[in-house]
User: Fold this.
Amino acid sequence: MRAIILVGGLGTRLRPLTDNLPKPLVPIAGVPLMTRTLRRLQAQGVREVVLAVQYLAAAFHKRYGDGAALGLRLRIVEEPQPLGTAGAVRYAATLAGELSDGPTLVLNGDELTTLDVAALWRHHQTAGGLATIAVRQVVDPTAFGVVVSDAAGRVTAFQEKPAAGTALANTINSGAYVFERAAIEQIPAATFAMLERDLFPQLLADGAIIAAYPHSAYSQDIGTLAGYLAANAAVLLGQIPGERPLGREVAPGIWAGAGVQIDPAATLVAPTMLGAGTQVGPGVLIERSVLWERVTIESDATVRDAVLATGSRVARATLLVDQAVGSQQNPTIEA
Ligand code: GDD
Ligand code: MG
Assistant:
């Protein structure tokens, strides 16, 4: 199997964490999301991956090179200008100048998921359409693309981000697809186009067969602070098969990387991740938070539902709640 992973978004909702780091490289319980994704894909039989990036391409090159260390043939392509989710697929798929024959897996790169892509691939081959969309049920579909399908499992409508009260179903696009070459050929080259707003509606209008692949795998978008914390919590609490935090478990749901120092008079509440080299002072309370590497929490500070980037410092007696702190930024709310 070969896969294109869409990793072009600017990660604006995770700022300042994503000021210097592309969103897919943020650590989930100590391991970058993209590393977790690439490992999972390799274990499921993917051998060739193209990362379709828009900015900070050098960060991906530096970390993954040609992918050999992960058992993959990895290429990183940077779009000359933002091409949208469809334009990026077209651009990445024509890397060698020509579209390859056979199907291609396409994945959003901002989710932690246990989706079985081999099963999605098999479903696509049995269904025999131009494309297959992995779908799942949610309570509130307004932040997603809604996928309506008939009794035969064929998609009949695609509705991106429906306004409240207008969603046609609770089944959503979970951001994983298989495309035949003929579907990718319908995307115009070198112009901005989206799978969700352009390609799918166009294929449906043309009467093409798009299959839906229903699944109930864990899927968590990490693009907001709440989503990021939820993905970390799930891994820290051992709820995601195959995904382990980095480091050792110092108490149930509390993990610490190498060289972490925790004062005996500090209180930690799970799920919490303390990245390598982090120092926690006396009287500190850390609840449900994710600390990257070499973070310093000075005495009597309270950190709750927060994320602290590598090298950040929380000053003495500071109260930090529901916030992400970048390396350069200091917490502002004093206790
Ligand atoms: N290369 C490239 N170029 N990648 C892009 C571009 C682009 O112009 N635009 C977005 N991406 C990448 C993002 O980095 C992300 O991994 C993926 O495409 C989806 O974009 P998001 O901006 O995260 O979309 P969303 O979360 O609002 O909605 C999408 O995902 C939902 C599932 O989480 C849609 O596909 C929805 O239909 C879907 O339900
Ligand atoms: Mg997203």
In short: The domain at 248-325 is CATH 2.160.10.10 (UDP N-Acetylglucosamine Acyltransferase; domain 1). The longest helix spans residues 225-236.
